[in-house]
Amino acid sequence: MKTDQTPRAHLAEIEKKGLLRKLQEFPQAGARLTIGGRLYLNFSSNDYLGLAVHPHVIAASVSAARKYGAGAAASRLMTGSLPCHTQLEKRMAALKNYDDALLLGNGYMANAAIVTTAIGRGDYVLADRLSHASLLDAAILSRARILRFRHNDYEHLDTILKKIPPSRRRLVLTESVFSMDGDLAPLKEIAAVTSEHGALLLVDEAHATGVFGPRGAGLVTELQLEEYVHFSMATLGKALGSYGACITCTHDWKQLFVNQARQFIYSTAPPPSAAAAAVAALDLIASGRASGGELLANAAYFRDRLKEKGFHTGNSSSHIIPVLIGDNLAAMNISRKLFEQAIIAVAVRPPTVPAGTARLRFSLSLLHSRDELSHTVDVLEKVADQEKGKLLRD
Ligand SMILES: Cc1ncc(COP(=O)(O)O)c(C=O)c1O
User: Fold this and answer.
1) Predicted TM-score (pTM) above 0.90
2) From 207, 312, 319, 368, the catalytic residue
């Protein structure tokens, strides 16, 4: 915003670029919504396993609210540390095969807590170019110098690390499943390069937790990289259908976060209902009643059908599937027309994604049947044909 600009003039400028965002209210959460008596398939929710609306998860959260209170009523270091918080931390540490875990308000805060505690002024952050905004904001907050390596390019990471004096602390940031592209990081290679240089590694498992790995443990655990990944961050607000986030790490790092991370110290403990809901979600995943494997198989089916129709899905190999459009307004138009056909796929535009890569981001859920996925591709094809010429097609 320019110094002499009013908020309204700034908004008009944003709108002119096709980048205005508006809040839209939906009647409930999740992957299937009834709006005005009509069923909508929602591909813009992160309720990957349908657990936000699962009766067991809801029952667990109601029962925790009755037992402990609607809110925790204090920060963890005052009187807000409750048995449901500790139980969740133990479960997450065991699931991810780490010594310990620390619960924070959400993933945005958890990333900030890790980065600002692990490094500071004079140190270096090395972030994948497509890292989530919460990782980049965390890096800015740390006051360390920020260097970005090309997306998923561990050789570029190596080149940059070689130039930094080893006397400085260096923290590498990546996601295991990228939120806007649905592609996977080459974690083994990144871990090898990071470890060779004696740097720290944070892997954001926001979109992998619950879906990838044994009992939804994520990709770090699946690839047995716990020793090399100092911090793994899992949000509870996506596949686990709740709210909050856990950092899994060693006991010592946890104690340092408890003592130093302002995002932990100066914030009310997460509500008991959210912690209990996440534990119930972990139970359902462990029992096989919510299967990430099944979701990934459905995603492969959906991706194949999209490709058959000539759509660009980038390098997606997860349940997050972008349909690349390119032009901001074309993406908005297609999204609007899909909505008229009871399909919700919100257009994602810059600055969330790089300029010229506006897209529809499809996040699949176990609550979408294969027939519904097939129907969605057919509708998308018809709608996209009306935007011919403005669309990236194979
Ligand atoms: C990769 C990634 N990291 C962190 C977050 C933030 O997590 P939360 O929604 O729990 O704040 C998100 C959510 O948008 C995300 O996609």
Assistant:
1) yes
2) 207
